[in-house]
Amino acid sequence: MSIGLRKSAAVLHRMLWVVFFAQFVVRLFTDLPYDYWLSWLPALAAIAISTTLSRSARRRIEAEPPAPVEVEPPVTGRWSALNSPADKVPSHGTHHLGQTYAIDIAAEPEEGPARPKPVWFWPIARPGKAYPAFGEPLHAVADATVVHAEDGQRDHLSRSSLAGVLYFWLFEGVGRTLGGTRRVVGNHVVLDLGGGTYAMYAHVQRGSLAVRTGDGVVAGQLIGRCGNSGNSTEPHVHFQLMDGPDLDTARGVPFSWRGVGVPRNRETFTVREEATPVP
Are residues 107 and 14 in the same domain? Predict the structure, then answer.
């Protein structure tokens, strides 16, 4: 499937979901001139498009397995892996948005306050600063050029309880999906590493970016800080490599962090701190 066709399919997919949910809002005030069951057609069509795109990506990966690209780790300190491609591919349950080989990592410091554990009822939510990952530096994984950088979206409260997570998925998550790709990944940075490989950092802290689109960066340089923007239940780093800069059309590329590899789910790893390079 060509890039243009994938882009058109991604836009149509989002529009169909908007139409589907808009119908239910309209029905609160008036009757629609067609049968209730017909209102489900946009949702069914959106699911069919999503399934087709996912199958196309899976067939391509099975036919031409991409080689891992070795880069530097995006963080320093002690962290643990979540949703790792070392355990499952696609790691986040979808090939959408180039997430096939994406990884989430959460800070797990040996000293200082520990990362809060999920609870059933209370507190329903916690401030981002309650998590050690919030505000942690993010570093360039290679010498690169910044092709996209935005950090204007808010950092929301962490969904630390069952009630908070349900609210997140049933209401906030749906709203962000309808709002488009940038609302899903939140504040984010995309780096062009050269050779057709791009790195994307999602859920960046609001107002923390130290780079702008068009800037050149060197490996290890500070580019921003970990936040909790977009579709995120707690402050963490979402990192992935892709074969293009457009999240709607990019396909995932496997990575390996130099000195770390690809940590498995719940595996902790430590990256030694070094002086931040001067660009």
Answer: no
